[in-house]
Amino acid sequence: MFTTDELMNLRTAFEAVSMGEAFINLDALKALFEDMQADYSDEQLTEFLELCGKSEDEDFISFELFARTLALMLEDKADKVSTSSQQNDDQGEEYGEEETESQA
Asked: Range of 18's domain?
């Protein structure tokens, strides 16, 4: 999902928050996502982390888990945009059909 350059940039951002450690905590992850302008609630973030393999017992998040979670968040956002634009297209078709019928 990510290019080599994107992974390097993500690694740099992760290391800046982790202060050179291999893991970060949930608060640091939230701050990192806020810096990246990823607006998700705590519940949504927890759900994404669990979908990527984090158990409730784990307190720390690795770079791999961070990158997988971000990829899932981006995929979710793209799906919502795609679904939204598809619904708009469908509504436009319905309006077009109604106009044709009313003109007849």
From this structure: 4-103
